[in-house]
Amino acid sequence: MKTEKVTFKNSTGHELSGKLELPADQKPHNFAIFAHCFTCSKNFTATRNITRALTRDGFGVLRFDFTGLGESDGDFGDTNFSGNVEDLSAAIEFLTTRYKAPTLAIGHSLGGAAVIFASAKANSIKAVATIGTPSDTQHVKHLFGDQIKAIIENGEAVVQLSGRPFKIKEQFLRDIDSQMLTQTLKKMRKPILICHSPQDDTVGIAHAEKLYHAAMHPKSFVSLDGADHLLTDKKDSIYVGGVVAQWAMRYIEQPEAIKLQSTHEVVASLDATSGFTTAIKAGSHYLTADEPLEVGGSNYGPTPYELLSSALAACTVMTLQMYAVRKEWTLDLVQCHVTYSKQHAADCQNCEDSGTKIDTFTRFIKLPENLNEKQVKRLLQIADKCPVHKTLHTDTQVITNLL
Question: Of 24, 86, 280, 339, whose CA is between 20 and 30 Å from 7?
């Protein structure tokens, strides 16, 4: 997984701070946007776990801090629920402009409510997922307890939320009173996944039922049995991310995989837009080669020389196991570690040239401790007889033809 720190401005000009999570081994097939829970942040543990589970399934995911929270500009006391929705719209526009329009939107708790409102207005969003989301935005009032009266009488009050003080203004109360979540959900007409725990004592399971009845098909519900509202158990948040990723695949378009065909043993293909990211078909198997970031690649796969080193390492352990079976020796585990470099030759024809170097594969073999000294010595000799090793040591030729 790769993470990029990003910033973008919302409709009021405040700079919002976000992190874009990207798959480690491929270009994202789709982009998603994540809205964190009320007063949380983009760095909340459950948020990170969910987004990273999505990246493992090939999504690029933007998580960001709402106005006045985390590393984003602005005063939380001056925000309202409508502002959160606008922040989401700004995030969607940022992804659309800088990367690719998001097709999946996920929201946790009140962030799920904001996601429903923002997704109803965003044509690019094809699927929506909520986690522990209330069926009406007024539900958040209970978090303010006996301070509601003070907020109304004084126009604002400081409220303790999750152990931290937050200034809540009367306009926030008026704004959440005006939101009609279930009506918006009914009109949205987009696939929705509702994830909720029966043991959620912050937002009761009855809210999930109301959301489910308000939503139009296709709609799905997943019970997060045993989880708390904030998904403090790491296993719960990782599970949610994986479920959302697999569910969304049914409703979003994915680029068609390159179907390489060849009458030869191996074919490699690279188009003009992929940088160095190369698709390979070896026999009936598909893999990717690439170059490191520092030389202009995307690091989505091993380099050609890493693949060559892999061939030597794999052939070595296969050969050793094959020999051990024939000798009826037990090799519970054998490993071969290989490093490739160019080194000065110990003996060469142009030794007067200080720049003369030869390709060098340094191989380290790890054998089990149950072998005696004679067996170890013999296996090291056999390692030098592996077919790839012998190929690297013989004269080879590459014959190039036009296909």
Answer: 24
